[in-house]
C-alpha cells in the first residue's frame, strides 16, 4: 500500500483506524504509571499482538506505540538516550504486523511539558525534540505521521513542521477537546475554529479530534460537524470509550462497543472520513465500527 493510495482511499471512502494502544497494553499487564513505549523493546510480541488484533478487527490504519517516545517524556523513565531505538522498534513491530493489510501511522504526542511563557520549553527546544522523534519514525518507514492529543496550537504547528522537515509524506493533526459551559475547547483554551486554523497553518493533510475529557460520542459528532464547517480536508475522529472509572483498583472504561457503534453513522454524517478509537477502545469496538460501515 503506497502513501498516495492512503490519501486516495481516505478521499474515496470511510477508513477504519485502530483503537487504543495504551489501555490495551494495560490489559496485557502494563502498570498504569509505567512507560508504554518501553514495551517495544521489552515485550515486542505483546505490542505486535495488539496491532494484529486491530487489523483482524478490520482496521486499515494502525498507530505505532510511540505516543510519548520523545526525549522529554522518556526522560521521566531514564530512557531519553533511546529515542531512536524505541521509535524504530515501534515502526518495525507495526510494519511487520500490518504487512500489506494496513497503513502505519507514526504516533507523535505532546512534549510532556509546556511551551514558554506558560512553561520552560522554548520553541527551538520543542522543535528539536519533535524532529528527533519524527526522523526516527519516517526513516523507519511509516506511511504517515499522526500528531495527536494536542491541546496547544503552537505545539501542534511545531510538531507538524518537524514532521514535514523529517520527510513525512502525510501529516495528520488531531486535538483533544474538553467541554464546559462555553462549549468545546482544549485544555489550553483552543476552540474548534482555532484548532482548524492552526491545522491549516500547519499544512496538515488530515485534521481531526481524539481523546478529551468530559465528552461523549454525541460531543464528538458536534465537534466533527463544526470542523467540517471550517474545512474541506479529510477528518479523523477517534473518541474515547467514555471517561475512566476506578473499579476494584483498576481503570475501567464503560462505553461499550454497542453503544459507541450506534453513533457511528451520525459521526460519518457530521463529516468524518476516518473512524477509530482512543482510550478504552478495544479491537471489539473497532470490529463493530467496521461492521456498521461494512468496511
Structural features, described:
The protein has helices at residues 3-12, 22-27, 39-42, 44-57, 71-75, 83-98, 123-139, 153-165, 192-201, 217-230, 257-261, 264-270, 283-293, and strands spanning 15-16, 61-63, 103-108, 144-150, 171-175, 178-180, 183-185, 206-210, 235-238, 244-247, 250-253, 274-275. With 295 residues, it is α/β, with parallel strands linked by helices. It has an 8-stranded parallel β-sheet. The radius of gyration is 17 Å and the shape is globular. Helix 7 crosses helix 8 (153-165) and helix 8 packs parallel to helix 9. The protein is 45% helix and 16% strand.
Distance between the termini: 17 Å
Instruction: Count every beta strand, where a strand is a DSSP E run of 2 or more residues.
Output: 12
- Provide the spatial order of strands within the biggest beta sheet: 1-12-9-8-5-4-3-2
Mean pLDDT: 95
Q: Which geometry do the CA atoms define?
A: globular
Strand content: 15-25%
What integer value in Å does the Rg equal? Answer: 17 Å
Residue runs with pLDDT of under 50 for 5 or more positions: none
Query: What is the H/E order?
Result: HEHHHEHHEHEHEEEHEHEEEHHEH
Amino acid at each position: 500500500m503506497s502513501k498516495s493510495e492512503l490519501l486516495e482511499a481516505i478521499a474515496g471512502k470511510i477508513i477504519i483506524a485502530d483503537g487504543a494502544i495504551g489501555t490495551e497494553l494495560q490489559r496485557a499487564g502494563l502498570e498504569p504509571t509505567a512507560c508504554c513505549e518501553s514495551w517495544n523493546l521489552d515485550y515486542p510480541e505483546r505490542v505486535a499482538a495488539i496491532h494484529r488484533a486491530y487489523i483482524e478487527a478490520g482496521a486499515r490504519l494502525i498507530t505505532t506505540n510511540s505516543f510519548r517516545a520523545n526525549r522529554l517524556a522518556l526522560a521521566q523513565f531514564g530512557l531519553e538516550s533511546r529515542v531512536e531505538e524505541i521509535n524504530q522498534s515501534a515502526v518495525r513491530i507495526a510494519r511487520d504486523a500490518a504487512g500489506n493489510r494496513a497503513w502505519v501511522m507514526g504516533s507523535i504526542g505532546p512534549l510532556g511539558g509546556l511551551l514558554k511563557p506558560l512553561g520552560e520549553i522554548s520553541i527551538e527546544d520543542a522543535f528539536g525534540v519533535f524532529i528527533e522523534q519524527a526522523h526516527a519514525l519516517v526513516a523507519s518507514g511509516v506511511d504517515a505521521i499522526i500528531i495527536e492529543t494536542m491541546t496547544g496550537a503552537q505545539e501542534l504547528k511545531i510538531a507538524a513542521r518537524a514532521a514535514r522537515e523529517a520527510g513525512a509524506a502525510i501529516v495528520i493533526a488531531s486535538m483533544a477537546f474538553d467541554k464546559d459551559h462555553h462549549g468545546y475547547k482544549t485544555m489550553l483554551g483552543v476552540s474548534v475554529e482555532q484548532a482548524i486554523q492552526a491545522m491549516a497553518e500547519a499544512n496538515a493533510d488530515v485534521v481531526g479530534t481524539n481523546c478529551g475529557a468530559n465528552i461523549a460520542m454525541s460531543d464528538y459528532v458536534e465537534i466533527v460537524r463544526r470542523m467540517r464547517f471550517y474545512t474541506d480536508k479529510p477528518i479523523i475522529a477517534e473518541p474515547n470509550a467514555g471517561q475512566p472509572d476506578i473499579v476494584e483498583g483498576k481503570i475501567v472504561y464503560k462505553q461499550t462497543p454497542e453503544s459507541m457503534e450506534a453513533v457511528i453513522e451520525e459521526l460519518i454524517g457530521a463529516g468524518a472520513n476516518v473512524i477509530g478509537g482512543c482510550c478504552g477502545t478495544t479491537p471489539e469496538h473497532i470490529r463493530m465500527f467496521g461492521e456498521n460501515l461494512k468496511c
